[in-house]
Automatic annotation (TrEMBL):
InterPro entries (alphabetical): RNA_methyltr_RlmE, RNA_MeTrfase_FtsJ_dom, rRNA-MeTfrase_E, SAM-dependent_MTases_sf
Native source species: Salpingoeca rosetta (strain ATCC 50818 / BSB-021)
Protein name per its UniProtKB record: tRNA 2'-O-ribose methyltransferase
Biased composition annotated in UniProt, kind: Acidic residues: 199-208
Alphabetical list of SUPFAM superfamilies matching this protein: S-adenosyl-L-methionine-dependent methyltransferases
Regions of compositional bias (Low complexity) in chain numbering: 176-198
Length: 216
């Protein structure tokens, strides 16, 4: 399917192409870092649902694991992802205990300072179903995070706005506090969320969302 002129005019889409980012979503993480200073003192990071790799690119450029042997970044996704220098890539299911174990093994038994997740499931166009599946993906990301994130670490995840509740709103026992944020590079169009899935090969990220920065 061809891309609309509106997509082509999107400033973040253009900037992503110009600056070599794999997707416009890179700017969301960059803006969150500006707001929350996410990367200060961080040496071990997990990028869940990482494909096509724009958030891993941000980690690569900010933390420079290809130059600093003390920095380790593990990118996890069910799909294969084009290699990134310095990024450890895993094809794995985030709902599986074996995936959590493999992540910790890459950190030589230690746990991550930061876990990030910008994942979104395939959309059906049926709002209630899509909302439920997105919530389950977020909860799966949070579940594996409890196994791989050190106490006091930070969890950043995409959570679509929902009519009834947010997945994080029901996890007060696990998440003592969270700070919702909507970077300016996030789209507010639900219709564009469906376009994102159709154009996944080019990965124009457009979804009504908030991102939650969580200290566990």
């Amino acid at each position: 399917m061809g891309r609309s002129s509106k997509d082509r005019r999107d400033v973040y889409y253009r900037l992503a192409k110009e600056q070599g980012w794999r997707a416009r979503s890179a700017f969301k993480l960059l803006q969150l870092d500006t707001q929350f200073d996410l990367f200060s003192g961080v040496k071990k990071v997990v990028d869940l649902c990482a494909a096509p790799g724009s958030w891993s690119q941000v980690l690569q450029r900010k933390l420079k694991p290809q130059e600093d042997e003390d920095v380790k970044v593990v990118a996890v996704d069910l799909q294969a992802m084009a290699p990134l220098d310095g990024i450890i890539q895993m094809q794995g299911d985030i709902t599986k205990e074996s995936t959590a174990t493999a992540i910790v093994d890459h950190f030589e038994g230690e746990k991550a300072d930061l876990v990030i997740c910008d994942g979104a499931p395939d959309v059906t166009g049926l709002h209630d179903i899509d909302e439920y599946v997105q919530a389950q993906l977020l909860l799966a990301a949070l579940n594996i995070t409890t196994h791989v994130l050190k106490p006091g670490g930070t969890f950043v995840a995409k959570a679509c706005e929902m009519k009834r509740t947010t997945a994080l709103g029901e996890t007060d026992v696990v998440v003592p506090a969270h700070a919702p944020s909507q970077p300016s590079s996030s789209s507010s169009s639900a219709q564009q969320q469906q376009q994102q899935q159709q154009d996944e090969a080019d990965d124009v990220e457009a979804v009504q969302e908030e991102l939650n920065v969580v200290s566990l």
